[in-house]
Amino acid sequence: MNPKSSASDANAPFAITADDVAPESTSSGNVTTYQGTESAGDAAITNNENDRVEFLDQSTAAQATIVNNSGGSAHFSDQSTAGSAFMTNNADSLIEFTDQSTAAGSNITNNEGGKISFDDDAGGGNAAIANNGAIAFQGNASAEQANIVSNAGATVSFSGNATAGTAQITNNGGLNFEGSSSAGQSLITNNEGAATGFSGNSSAATAAITNNGDVAFTDDATAGSASIINNQSGGVAFSGNASAGAAFMANSGQLDFAGSSSAGTAEVVNNASGVVTLSGSATLANASVNNGGLVDFSGNASAGAATIVTGPAGRTVFRELSSGGTAALETNLGGTVDFSGVSDGQIEVGSIQGPGTYYLGGVALVVGGNNLSTTVDGAIVDGGLSGGTGGSLVKTGGGTLTLSGPNTYTGATDVSGGVLQAGAAGALSARSDFIVGAGALLDLAGFDQTIGSLSGTGSVDLATARLTTGGNDADTVFGGTASGTGGLTKTGAGTMELAGVNAYSGMTEVEQGELRVSGSIAASSVRVDAGAILSGNGTVGATTVAGTLARENDGGTLSVAGDLVLGHGSTYSLSLDPNAGASLLTVNGTATVEGSSLVVSVIGDFTIEGTSFRILSASQVIGNFSDVQSDMPFIDLALHYGGGTVDLDVSRNNTDFTSVAETANQRAVAGALA
């Protein structure tokens, strides 16, 4: 028996034509109802304005053809099913699934202005849906295995706890996930011009998303563990507190993190045409980024604790007030990391490594906070996109940073934690002032190095290498300890003071400027070239002087743990203070002074005649000073040589004060003093 309708004349607003309609189906007015286990069979059902067909209980639309015209509707509730029906939903019409009903294997065309809704625990089954209107999944509804093609101007939305299930969704219009909804394990293709949005607490879950349009994550939404392929025309944006979660993202277009968004633990492959930007307070968090394009940090954005590998053609750029956090930065050959645009003059990163180039501009790069041990085979240099010179390197943390490339940055190198190690000869910047802090180590690892200058209180391990320092002409004090079998060469016009107890055993060469030893280099032999100066009140090894050995009026003693040779043309420069005595030179060996000049200057006034100073003590003194020079016209100086001593006698001579007076006033004063 056919279900009955309250409209039975020829102009009835809807018609049912089927030979096998379930005999218990009923109609009431403009409503046709199927209930129990009734089936619509292959009925042809047309719903016009205010007409509707209802499927209740376990009833099914079977193979029916259902057309909803303006104001018509079809309703599925309880555990009813759309079977394999063909349904066309026109403007202002509705197809509704509630409770545990399902679209099953139906074929649905939703035209412009039409609406399809899934509520409660309803599901999309494996229906094929062509959408030109609006589809809404609400409550706990699921798209299940449906195949949804949503055309331009059409929308598909998920809200509440709804999920896309394992549906295949092709979006040419708008696709939105709101509330706590989820993209499930769906396959989403977001075509050019289309927009897919995640807001609220929604999640992309484990969906596979191919994007040629725009995908946006806002509020507290997350990409979950989704796989997102963002093609060249596509844009993926995270804002608010949104997170990339643990997603995999392959980017050939634009990938943006703004606001307080986070890349979470995502894996990002940024291809050659890809651009990844972080602005506002966004962070890469713990993400892994393989960068073959451009990664750009600006605002207060941070690299967090991410790992960023910059490929051969890749660029990673930090600008404005952005931070490297504790991120691990790695470059491949040809890859660049640029810090030159950082506006506050300093940036921290966890670690750097690889054969690429790191541009500092005039910025101080602080590395080592993640305590990793890494090697930079490439170069750390000034310059970069924003230009600038004087970039500096600060090594912190407990790890070892090994420099093996041709580094040329011109600012200071501050080793304040862990180890800074040379990995090749000449790897340390020759123009940099190296400061080694307490507890830190500068390790030459046997590779000869030239640096601008050396200071600090930490340790230097020369191994078998020679360290040449002083080329920047700075005055510095190194109060730490240097060890190894290598040696030290002092260059430049400045003064370098060694204030610590050093154990290195290679030669110390003073080529230029002044080396002041207030600590000890007892295990090192010393050579002082012409024009250079050795001074101090510490201990040196066997010493040969072609330049100047200077003893200042410090009341101390310069000790030579070995022989001393003051060569022809050399100078022993001595300061005298009548109230403090001379500064003694003690040689634990033979002192050879033949051909050397003694130059004496006085600090203060002599009031006692016949003062004698011991200026040299040795096991044996060979030769005599060639001459004694003084800036004291009224004092006579006389040397007395013992077996192992040299004494200097100072006395007033007969030179009249008036003989050096140049003016009448000076002559009057000189006459009064005579």
Automatic annotation (TrEMBL):
At the top level of its lineage, which domain of life is listed? Bacteria
Spans traversing the lipid bilayer: none
Q: What segments bear the compositional bias annotation Polar residues?
A: 24-38
Which SUPFAM superfamilies would you find in this protein's record? Pectin lyase-like
Gene3D superfamilies associated with the record: 2.160.20.20
Pfam families given in the database record: PATR
**Where is the segment annotated Disordered?**
1-39
Is Cell inner membrane found in the keyword set? no
Q: Which UniProt keywords apply?
A: Signal
**Name this protein carries in UniProt:** Autotransporter outer membrane beta-barrel domain-containing protein
What is the organism of origin for this protein?
Mesorhizobium sanjuanii
